[in-house]
Amino acid sequence: LQVPHAPSQPLASNENRRLTNKHSKKALKASLTLGILLGMFFVAWLPFFVTNVAQAVCGCVPAGFFDVLTWLGYCNSTMNPIIYPLFMRDFKRAMGKFLPCCRRPAEPRPSAITLSMRNSHSGPRAPTSLKNVL
Prior knowledge:
This protein is mostly helical. It is built from five helices and no strands.
């Protein structure tokens, strides 16, 4: 009694490897973007919070220095809209559809009704009456 041997499928193996590699690249890029965002957050806000605790304990922090650290934290909020388009192609593409300065000439701006219909997963529907439903 012999068990039939299935021929090896190098195409399926290569396809799986390619998809895994593509997924790995996307995950790495997402991790890099998240790491940069969190790193910027800590660089901007950690000095503020440490100084805030020091001010509560000893009261030795000058007001001007405290203001500078507060504005450093505010600058972090300014950096987020710059970081996202630099590292995320999908974000860039989505913003390009809605900002007039980034839109290609051949691309019309989608209307609010089109967006609403696309987001609600509904399209034009045939008219229905209670008689047809029952």
